Amino acid sequence: MAGGDSSALAALSRQQAVGERSQVTKVQTFLLLFAVVLFNAVGNLSLAWGMRHVSEAMTFNPVGYLRAMLNPYVALGIVLLVCWLLSRMTLLSWADLSFVLPLTGMGYILAAVFGKLFLGENVTPAHWSGTILICAGTAMVGSTDQQTGMRRCRAVSGDEQ
Amino acid sequence: MKWLLLSVIVVATVMGDLLQSYEMKRSGEQTVNARGLARLLFMIVSRRHLLLSILCMAISFFAFMALVQIAPLSFAVPASAATFVLETVLAKFVLNEHVGKRRAAGALLVLSGVVLLAR
Fold first, then answer.
1. ipTM value
2. What is the pLDDT of residues A123-143, one digit of tens each?
């Protein structure tokens, strides 16, 4: 009886532990997702701002790119985009590409908003429509079966009967 | 010139994404603390597919630097989503994946969006 109680308690605590762990992971996933979107949008803005102030035109010569990287805004943009790359790689290991793609697709709209607000770009109604279509399209492309990867992982680890 | 740069970005990004996704799925879940970051950096230099994906991304990035110099950011970033169209085509004809109606419709929406950006 006591043994049965203790095993029931152990099962309950295991259940709670699993529940807590998955909740924390979900919060962490969305926080990381927010960071990924932000790193990308601000990094692109800084890079574009810096490149507009580089007088040398970019060609196939790599020295020109290295010289452009000396511009502080270009350098900041690169640092932020490296942060984006690393955080996105981590996010890809936590969640399926089909989950990550539609949500990071919001970056396209942010780029148009930042371009208009900070770079004084003329964003025409056709451009807004195009950007929204692209965002909706990425969401649709990404909304295919999200479970394939998880099922494959479980099957490989032997959890799936 | 901006369409040539966009093509380079799209092809290099698709190659980089495919290689990166393949290798990260193989390596299991990663963490974001200092130790996890160090492990991630070590993985980048020790895995062939990740190294290749970084090379593709570098090419894509240099083309992107050149593109944002000559084209608006509000064009450069959304237009680079044309990668989804190429990824869908590759999934269907190279990887022989099943491409559902929803995914095909999504890729068509992206294509329509890029056409609108060209106006």
1. 0.74
2. 899 999 999 999 888 888 766
* Distance between first and last Cα of chain A: 31
Look at residues B43, B61, B45, B56 and name the one whose alpha carbon lies nearest to residue B16. B56
Phi, psi of A41 (to 5 degrees): -65, -50
Within 105-134 of A, beta carbons closer than 8 Å to B belong to: 105, 107-108, 111-112, 114-116, 119, 121-124, 126-127, 129-134
What pTM was computed for the model? 0.71
Residue ranges making up the domain that contains B49: 2-118
Specify the number of domains making up chain B. 1
Q: In this structure, what DSSP letter does residue B67 have?
A: H
CA distance A74 to A46: 6
pLDDT in tens, A42-61: 999 999 999 988 887 777 77
Collapsing DSSP to helix, strand or coil, B32 comes out as coil
**Nearest C-alpha of chain B: how many angstroms from A120?**
10
